[in-house]
Amino acid sequence: MDVILFLVFALIAVVCAINVVVQTHPISSALSLVGVMGSLAVLYLLLGAEFIAAAQVIVYAGAIMVLFIFVIMLLNAGAETRKGRSYMVQLLGVPLLIAFLGLAAFFVQRMYGDEAVTFGLFQKGGPKEIGQALFTTYLLPFEVTSLLILVAIVGAIVLARKEFD
Amino acid sequence: MLSAVPISWFLTLSAVLFALGVAGFLFRRNIITVFMSIELMLNAVNLSFVTFSYHYKSVDGHLFTFFVMVVAAAEAAVGLAIILTVFKNRGTLNIDDVDSMKN
Amino acid sequence: MDALLDSFIFITVIKALVIFAVLMTTLAYLQWVERKVIAHIQVRPGPYRVGPHGLLQPLADVIKLVTKEDLIPPYVNKVFYLMAPFLAITMALLSISVIPFGPTIAVGPVRTWMQLTDLNIGVLFILAVSSMGVYGIALAGWASNNKYSLLGGLRSSAQMISYELPMSLAIASPLLISNTLSLRKLVETQTGGIWHWNVIGGAQVVSFLIFLIAAFAETNRVPFDLPEAENELVAGFHTEYSSMKFASFFMAEYANMITVSAMATLLFLGGWDAPWPAEYGSGLVPAAIFALCGLILLYHGRQGIRKWDKYTFPVFGVIFLGIAGIFLVPLVQGWLLPLFWFLAKTGAILFLFIWIRGTMPRFRYDQLMGFTWKFLFPVAMLNLLVTAFVVALRTS
Predict the structure, then answer these.
(1) What is the pTM of this model?
(2) Could you give the domains of chain B?
(3) What is the value of ipTM here, to two decimals?
């Protein structure tokens, strides 16, 4: 059951990720990316990360990607024109990519080959545990990220303003 | 037939997604798509974090994922504002055309 | 046979079928109720011709929508054009699956919860699914290749992102009080009468109001229905849609309304908990209400003005008296009474939705955005801070 679930959603994730790269229109890429994020959320659930799965859908798919789609729709920019592409890159890049992935898979297999993921074995991914860790061990990074967000808000408003007076 | 998913499959999937993100980042010419490739890479890394969190049976990886999400949100806000400004000033989204420092 | 009855999948399938059938009927009849209520606000009879008092109107609407020509306009982006209504309706119906309608129900030997599935992150699940609902509308607006649709889609995505913030903050305060994310446990912490409900016992009136306002915006209802403002944008994002694809958007809107009403009930109004304990006679209230309705109908049936009133009023009166009788049977009281209270509270909020649609004008777009960012968001933040402070003081 777990294996089927993993295979289905891993397949969706990979196909959508390939789609992100090969689609020429940004809105198709954006929606494929939403597909990747959704299937990753299911895989997080499989790994026992309930809170992160929900946050993934709410923050990534529900907020960040909506922002992307909003900007794409606002600019209404058409599909990307294919120009100045070197075939050399594709010719060399794709085999290199596959070779790299093969190597990575091989080493990962060697290092963690015997361990398997059992659904329900890892129970510490709930909101309670995350909250406890967030406000004790990781309190300083948490406060720093709040500063980061404040800076980002100010920056975005300054950039998006109509004129600088 | 396997009864449980090996942990290495998750890590391999993460590597595949990351590689696809890199490929998108290098091959694509639309700023927004390049930006989305970065998000894809971040997502791939997040999957590794959560997987390692399972491996070490500790919640730390989830916290890292959480922080990556926060940073990604901040990055998206600023990045998209920059893209809007660039499009307003240049009328193009092709990163090859935004090279005024060159000349 | 027992193994089959006890099996998880069998029970789940049965529950899913029941919930699906009831939900679909409710969606159709909510439409009828809305038309009737608005008609009465405007002193019109409303749908009247199809069946007694227009009661078969939803059926006629469904037949009309199904048999209408399914038109795909030229120059649309086909894939996304077809995907958008599908996404909208899927996301709208998905969130119903975690909403509990009542406590356990016993059918013969089987005991089960009146809920499809209980997640311990149920509230987050609903937030996540409802935030995915934006895609349906945004995509519909973009794929239609029509400037009015595009404007509607843009407006709705901006509106939904903006109102999600105060909504999430408003949801956070009752969660602080109840200290759980599971919708079922949320209700269990509020049992024991109206003074235990989060809106009174937790003093969450402000966040309840913020939640309601944000809910109106999230479901694109008047006074925040700018994505589909008829007189500015023709019909907004669904201008180019016809037949069942249009119906999908319509059903998605009503399903979203039901979801947010149920959420408000569960978070603030104590779910299926009666307003006061059963030993003071709260169990008799539904029977009394239905009996009163039945008696009024019987009384009016004697002097019916219209031709059919002489027959329809007494028939409905007897039906209502029968329902009142069912509420008094001790065997079913255990699950029927909670169900009644849950539906009554949800129905009251749904009625509020319709009532406001009948009375309020539409906001201007800049007012809409200014309202959430400059008023709702700070107030929700302040409310959350105060609630957190009080909860911290109480627990320490």
Answers:
(1) 0.86
(2) 29-98 (1.10.287.3510)
(3) 0.87
